[in-house]
Amino acid sequence: MRILHLNDLYDPRIGSSIRQMYQESERLRELGHEAAVLSVTQDTGLLAGATFGEQEVLGSRVFLAHSDYNPRWRGWVGLDNPRTRAALAAVLDEYRPDVIHTHLIHTHLSYAALAAARRRGAGVVFTSHDVMTFCYQKLTCFHGGPAAGGELRDYPAHWSKCIPCQRLRFRPGRNAAIRRILARDVDRFTVVSDELGRAISANGIRVDRTVWNAIRPQRRLPTEAEVAAFRVARGLEGAQTIAIGGRLHEQKGVGQLLQMVAKLAGEFPRLRLMVMGKRDVYDREFAPLAAELGVAERVVPTGWLDGDELQQAYAAVDVFVTPSICFDTFGLVNLEAMEHSKPVVATVFGGSPEVVLDGQTGFIVNPFDVDGFAGRIAELLRDPERARAMGAAGHRRMVDFFTIERLTDEFIEEYDLAAAAARARSGTARSRA
């Protein structure tokens, strides 16, 4: 079978979901299938001045189109982007995929790509990694915020909520158009967590299946000597270390976490918070709050990490935390911490409760309850044996349920169903002719 992944992002250093796409492609090739990627770049230099090019990334053939515009128009361009039409048509003509597997396409490749794939006779599988089928950004309005204690689950989008949030970015009819396109042009619609499926279903979109995210385990984990050297280099030697990783944003709960550190500081004088994300973002958006709370010297901002250094960072952690106050659809960083046998204290919002088992592999806590979240972190810092036991249980859970082999097998089932639907359409068309 020949599979073409569509994704607005192609650089595996950007995030875990991009790495997962390449890991699945690698596994598909191991099983005798073909897999390639169509993506976009804003760097015309990468294409040597052309509007379309090709390169290899982690063993995958990657077709690259050029697309760049002011993101305020995403509500319009995300439905149909004229900048990528020719590239999509050329790739469909040359690669002739049996199945199109779309991931993040709401900014550049656009929902119009689904109709183009269907017209060319391909089966179409759509994986929703986020809430962008009905929301313009990270979903934050559903829980009611501090006023409601984060207890609401108000998922349906409505102009009365969206217009005050998006203002001039709001495009009337966007969500209705997306629903029509998905219903018409997608053979199989999958989500990365059951909770994401509930949110999407609440907005009138058919969900066929949950396929949990996964990782391909590292071929080699860091040695004790490498981890010790990392700790020394980062000023973590002898420290009790908690960490947050990924994109740094207020919606990821970084502000809440700094408040937690302030509450924990008195009991844990050796406590350090490792912030594994872009240093300039931390310095600009969160360093002032850390100083205001009196915890600036307890924070170790590493900057963006990848490769061996990222693995060493995970291995150097005592407790990993994901205190997101937005709808965190899955939290692949949870799995990456679990691979290193680390207990995780994670948000109640989104898919983390499906990954982290409360009281077994870590804890699930409402991050608006700063005292409660900090208290769970404290329990693990006070009891290293319990923390290690939870981390070991998390590692077993990762191996049992979240491997790339399981994910690929499930997607092959989806590809077969989508390809069969495409063949049925073709047969119907011939019979009508």
UniProtKB/TrEMBL annotation:
One GO MF term attached to the UniProt entry: glycosyltransferase activity
Ranges of residues in domain Glycosyl transferase family: 238-395
Entry annotated with the keyword Disulfide bond: no
Domain annotation Glycosyltransferase subfamily 4-like N-terminal: ranges: 22-211
Keywords, alphabetical: Glycosyltransferase, Transferase
Keyword Glycosyltransferase: yes
InterPro entries xref list: Glyco_trans_1, Glyco_trans_4-like_N, Glycosyltransferase_grp1
PANTHER family per the UniProt record, alphabetical: SULFOQUINOVOSYL TRANSFERASE SQD2 (PTHR45947)
Name of protein: GDP-mannose-dependent alpha-(1-6)-phosphatidylinositol monomannoside mannosyltransferase
Protein species of origin: Engelhardtia mirabilis
Gene: pimB_9
